[in-house]
Amino acid sequence: MLMLMLKRPLCFVLIVLFVSFGLPLATAQGCPTYQTNLVIDLVNSIPQHVAVGGTVVTKVHVVYPDGTPATLSPETISFLWSSSSGQKTIENAPVVPTGDPGFYLYTQTVGADFPTGTVTIYAVVCSCSDALGNYGPTTNTSSDLTITPADISILVIGPPTPTGPPTAQQLFSTYGIPVIIALLLLAALLLLLARRKKR
Fold first, then answer.
1. Using an 8 Å Cβ cutoff, are 64 and 44 in contact?
2. CA-CA distance, 165 to 173, in Å (whole number)?
3. Residue 98: which residues within 8 A CB-CB, separation 6 or more?
4. What ranges do the domains of the chain cover?
5. Helix (H), strand (E), coil (C) string for the chain
6. Based on C-alpha coordinates, what's the Rg of the chain?
7. Phi, psi angle pair for 189, to nearest 5°
8. Residue 79: what pLDDT?
9. What is the tens place of the pLDDT at every residue in 75-133?
10. What predicted TM-score, i.e. pTM, was given to this entire model?
11. Which of 13, 101, 178, 184 could cross-link 69 (Cys pair, CB 3.0–4.6 Å)?
12. Per-residue pLDDT reduced to its tens digit, 146-168
């Protein structure tokens, strides 16, 4: 068979083309966008400061390139949390429609395995789809890349909020200086009273 293909190059080329065109379109191109794609034009996360164990709510707006609101199917989007300390991807996170066309809410509890410090939340490339087979966004999208100037998907994640009774060090850092000042004032008042009695 090999000798036959070598002797007949046209036959070999036809076989290669047949196999190539027989591949699924998604395999050849990666994430399909077809005639249109989905665009995320808003990524807004609150609060802007949260401790590990806290909850962050991110609102996204999904539209077609002409600005028409899109309806997701399924209602999931993947999100990337990224900072200088590391990255965390949440695959196919459920999103909830807000009632306004194209707007969805993603709620996430910040786990111990999430990056900390200044963290940017991105909607992951091609993780949105509709019932017509359109996909988007065409790149990882944060508030830095949207056309909405007021949104912000950058937040600061700090260490876990301490639980249980405060330690002696925490109590001293909070109340130590006021207590010392009060004691000094009391001592000064007692000295003043003692001097007056001696007179």
1. no
2. 15
3. 59, 104, 105
4. 30-158
5. CHHHHHHCHHHHHHHHHHHHHCCCHHHHHCCCCCCCCCEEEEEEEECCEEECCCEEEEEEEEECCCCCECCCCCCEEEEEEEECCEEEEEEEEECEECCCCCEEEEEEECCCCCCCEEEEEEECCCCEECCCCCEECCCCECHHHCCCCCCCCEEEEECCCCCCCCCHHHHHHHHHHHHHHHHHHHHHHHHHHHHHHHC
6. 30
7. -65, -40
8. 98
9. 999 999 999 999 999 999 999 999 999 999 999 999 999 999 999 999 999 999 999 98
10. 0.67
11. 101
12. 999 999 999 999 987 666 676 67
* β 135-136/128-129 pair status: antiparallel
Rounded alpha-carbon distances, angstroms, from residue 27 to 20, 124, 138: 10, 19, 17
What would you measure as the largest C-alpha separation in the chain, in angstroms? 128
* Pairing outcome for strands 154-158 and 128-129: unpaired
- Give the CATH architecture of domain 30-158: Sandwich (2.60)
Cβ–Cβ under 8 Å, residues 57 and 160: no
Side chain identity, residue 81: W
Place of tokens 């925490």: 170
Pair of tokens at residue 21:
């065109």
Nearest to 121 by CA among 159, 163, 93, 96: 93
